[in-house]
């Protein structure tokens, strides 16, 4: 964690004594969005421009798969969610953003969805970028990354990009897939809008627990919807024997994230 000590000093610790106050402040001080958080679910092909960094992307979604009720797998990943847009734009363009990426880092996104905005954009900022999701998402995810990667490159340097299956409910298989591409623990784990279902929270936290090494850090961007779900997530992370939870102060977020979102940083406890 020493590599991230400067960042950690700028954050606010969330512990057992501050959970209630933290959640209350989120829902009383940050203007909530009156929407579910998707970018556009009216068509299969959408054009996106990151508000501040002005990077243009063309994303292929699958509205058919989104509305597929016969599948036992999650379908939310088949459309693009605004949290990925705002979080990535904040990383790239905000002078207040305390997160400084460098070309020596290996970055993994949990739950990339088909849009793959985070791995696509960060492929020009990192040594190795890994996009992950459930198996049924991967084909369209890989296609979108390939279509948009070169358009988003700001330098001639091309990092390595991998797309692998990582189902939170089958962490052992996910870790096997990660090791098969030569990675034990990524330096940075990113997750955008993955906290929306109470059932999945323990599996998501277990995935973080397995992915994070002593020098790793996770950034979790969440749209504020149901306060009960949010409180469960915060409580479960705080009570986890292996993890420490911090939150990025509102003053360090851009306007988009201050209005209805929260960004957490999670690291492993040094034992």
UniProtKB/TrEMBL annotation:
The keyword S-adenosyl-L-methionine applies. The keyword Flavoprotein does not apply. Signal peptide: none annotated. It comes from the Eukaryota. One of its GO terms (molecular function) is S-adenosylmethionine-dependent methyltransferase activity. Transmembrane segments: none annotated. Keywords: Methyltransferase, S-adenosyl-L-methionine, Transferase. CDD domains: AdoMet_MTases (cd02440). One of its GO terms (cellular component) is protein-containing complex. GO terms for biological process: methylation. Belongs to the class I-like SAM-binding methyltransferase superfamily. RKM5 family. This is Ribosomal lysine N-methyltransferase 5. It comes from Candida maltosa (strain Xu316) (Yeast).
């Amino acid at each position: 964690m020493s590599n991230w000590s400067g960042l950690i000093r700028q954050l606010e610790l969330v512990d057992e004594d501050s959970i209630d106050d933290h959640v209350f402040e989120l829902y009383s001080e940050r203007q909530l969005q009156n929407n579910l958080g998707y970018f556009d679910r009216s068509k299969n092909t959408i054009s996106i421009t990151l508000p501040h960094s002005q990077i243009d992307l063309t994303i292929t979604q699958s509205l058919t798969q989104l509305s597929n009720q016969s599948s036992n797998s999650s379908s939310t990943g088949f459309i693009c969610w605004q949290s990925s847009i705002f979080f990535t734009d904040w990383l790239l363009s905000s002078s207040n953003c305390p997160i400084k990426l460098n070309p020596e880092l290996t970055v993994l996104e949990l739950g990339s969805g088909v849009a793959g905005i985070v791995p696509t954009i960060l492929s020009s900022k990192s040594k190795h970028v890994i996009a992950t999701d459930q198996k049924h998402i991967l084909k369209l995810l890989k296609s979108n990354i390939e279509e948009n990667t070169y358009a988003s490159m700001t330098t001639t340097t091309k990092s390595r990009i991998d797309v692998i299956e990582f189902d939170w409910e089958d962490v052992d298989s996910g870790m096997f897939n990660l090791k098969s591409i030569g990675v034990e623990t990524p330096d940075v784990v990113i997750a955008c809008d993955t906290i929306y279902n109470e059932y999945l929270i323990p599996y998501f936290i277990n995935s973080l627990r397995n992915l994070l090494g002593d020098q790793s850090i996770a950034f979790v961007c969440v749209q504020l919807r149901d306060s009960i779900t949010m409180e469960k997530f915060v409580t479960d992370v705080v009570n986890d024997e292996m993890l420490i939870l911090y939150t990025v102060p509102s003053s360090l977020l851009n306007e988009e994230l201050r209005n209805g979102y929260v960004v957490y940083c999670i690291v492993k406890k040094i034992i």
